[in-house]
């Protein structure tokens, strides 16, 4: 075994969710010749991976286009295989790097060449991004970390394919003390129960709330149902001495604030 192969095996061992011998599903190439990674000489693959790592370490994410960033991520899932064709296929299927990472497991499984190790690697990176952005806002005053809060909401929700509704609970100093998903729905609807939202606020000894939900369509314009539901929660919160600071609707490219739009007084 060459030294290069030893390096790849060592790298793969860093990811317990990615078996060193994991390869794309059998038969993928027969169903779609572009689906399975092309066969390359071991020396080519080894040298290509080394060059890609060096470019990334020298220039960061800005030094690589989406397909090469995705290829670099996939190195940890499948060693000693050319991952460029699979990276390109994933981007063609889902649209961009972020949508690949946030794609539902079931849809990823439908892509030829994607196995458990690839899914695990993608979801590991997605979870790391969520955890990093969450750490920047938890236990911090919302006023001084508003941009970080918006970035966290975008990271967590902008590319979801179904509607999610979550509540950010704040203490009397407007420090974020909890971020809790309340419900998951369909592509255009999510059930929300105002009583449960305010009940949870009392359990957490929260003093204020920020509501957040996403629109998988990409357009953050609130629906009539969104406006009515927000009013119900605002009234329930007010009755218990809680403040509803805002309701953010997260689209794919931008977000909308009920407060800024005059929809919450």
UniProtKB/TrEMBL annotation:
Q: What is this protein called?
A: DNA repair protein RadC
Matching entries from NCBIfam families are given as:
PRK00024.1, radc
Q: Which CDD domains match?
A: MPN_DUF2466 (cd08071)
Which intervals hold domain MPN?
Answer: 142-264
Sequence segments annotated as region (Disordered)? 25-44
UniProt keywords, alphabetically: Hydrolase, Metal-binding, Metalloprotease, Protease, Zinc
Stored InterPro entries: MPN, RadC_JAB, RuvA_2-like, UPF0758, UPF0758_CS, UPF0758_N
Q: Which family does it belong to?
A: Belongs to the UPF0758 family.
An MF annotation (GO) of this entry: metallopeptidase activity
Q: Which Pfam families match?
A: RadC, UPF0758_N
Give the record's GO biological process terms.
Answer: proteolysis
């Amino acid at each position: 075994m060459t030294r290069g192969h030893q390096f790849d095996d060592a790298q793969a061992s860093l990811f317990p969710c990615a078996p060193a011998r994991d390869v794309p599903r059998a038969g993928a190439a027969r169903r779609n010749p572009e689906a399975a990674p092309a066969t390359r000489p071991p020396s080519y693959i080894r040298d290509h991976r080394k060059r890609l790592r060096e470019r990334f370490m020298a220039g960061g994410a800005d030094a690589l286009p989406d397909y090469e960033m995705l290829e670099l991520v996939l190195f940890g899932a499948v060693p000693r295989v050319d991952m460029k064709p699979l990276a390109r296929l994933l981007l063609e299927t889902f649209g961009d790097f972020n949508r690949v990472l946030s794609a539902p497991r079931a849809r990823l499984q439908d892509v030829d060449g994607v196995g458990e190790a690839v899914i695990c690697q993608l979801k590991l990176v997605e979870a790391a991004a969520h955890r990093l952005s969450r750490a920047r806002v938890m236990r911090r005053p919302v006023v001084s970390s508003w941009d970080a809060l918006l970035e966290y909401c975008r990271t967590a929700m902008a590319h979801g394919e179904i509607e999610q509704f979550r509540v950010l609970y704040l203490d009397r100093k407007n420090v974020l003390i909890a971020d809790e998903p309340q419900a998951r729905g369909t592509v255009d609807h999510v059930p929300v129960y105002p009583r449960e939202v305010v009940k949870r606020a009392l359990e957490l000894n929260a003093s204020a709330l920020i509501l957040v939900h996403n629109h998988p369509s990409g357009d953050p314009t609130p629906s009539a149902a969104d406006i009515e539901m927000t009013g119900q929660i605002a009234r329930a919160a007010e009755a218990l001495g809680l403040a509803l600071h805002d309701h953010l609707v997260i689209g794919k490219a931008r977000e909308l604030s009920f407060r800024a739009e005059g929809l919450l007084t």
